[in-house]
Amino acid sequence: MSDLSFTKWVACWGTATSITDRKEATYAKNLTLRYPVRVVFSGSKLRFHFSNLTGSETVNISRAYVAKKNDDGDYSPIAITLEGKTQLSIPAGQEILSDSIDFTIEAGQTVEVSMYFKDFTQMNAGTLVTGPLSKGQFAYGDFADKENFTDDFCRNTNWYYFLNTIDVLTEEKNHALVCYGDSITAQSWPDYLAQRAWEQGFHNVAIIRRAVCGTRILRQYDCITYAAYGLKGQTRFPIELQVAGASDVIIQHGINDIIHPVGVEVNKFRPWSDMPTAQEMENGVEELYIKHARKLGLRVWSGTLLPIFGWRTYEPFRDEVRNTFNDWLRTSPDFDGCIDFDKAVRNPKKTEAFAEGFDSGDHLHPSEAAYKAMADQVPESLLK
To answer: For the residues 62-77, what does the mean pLDDT come to?
Structure first.
């Protein structure tokens, strides 16, 4: 396959980096992480972004490899290097970009990225992601360049640590679509959108997920109890919009701003002073998101917030804020268009609630069927 037409770096896979839940154990040793990724573009080179954005200590990846997952038994891992070195050091609070490596890939092939951590490693930089295309593994021991893990010492994981983005040197026509948000977007609809694009023949678009559970537009928690709810939009967005070849961003964010505050008499970390008005949320999106995306030359699409009737902090006044904010998302000329996720999943006879079969059971997160409906709501113009 000639690489003469491969002249453009485009992100072919990506997730966000946030603060992992601060449990009793925050270090790992003698650990291998492995993440399979379906590459939707053909290309001739790969490069890898690793992030320790929320760590407070340097992370040393002892060895990292990428290999095609073939059915013919040919497993030939290639080392990922940084300035020619096989140990990748990521300083606290920083992200790094690996050397580019020659790697012939055809659209639709799956690669596996494996990282081995020999010494004690602070596992504070990662995010929880779910969906049909988001399946990782870990194993105790060094299996970074081995095709298979030992069954007795491995488990599946949906926590994505350190590996942040993969870029491929590909054709000029290819582009990336960024999905930005919170737990709704950290769950399945971006994966279903990627599947839909592939099945419908839109092979020139990669779906890049930038989503962290619990995050808000205007606030963040600085206590370890809720640290995993992530960084506020002002901090997150400029970092997470560093996506090679991006053309558009879908923003579906803000429900946590509305549902979190309960008053210090109920929870000392969630004062009523954190409760925003719809206008404050609109201003935040305009100032923190839209203006920055425009500077990057991106088209910006709004995504309406989903129903919350029955959620444990539901009150009519919260739904009033949501509806007012959604009205602005639907009508503001600052966006290139609106993707009305709310309309796609709500009960038409009781619009504050999910439609039958579309509630996961907690009255906040959609069911898998609803996530598929959300993916179907994205217009083809974003995929072409």
So the answer is: 88
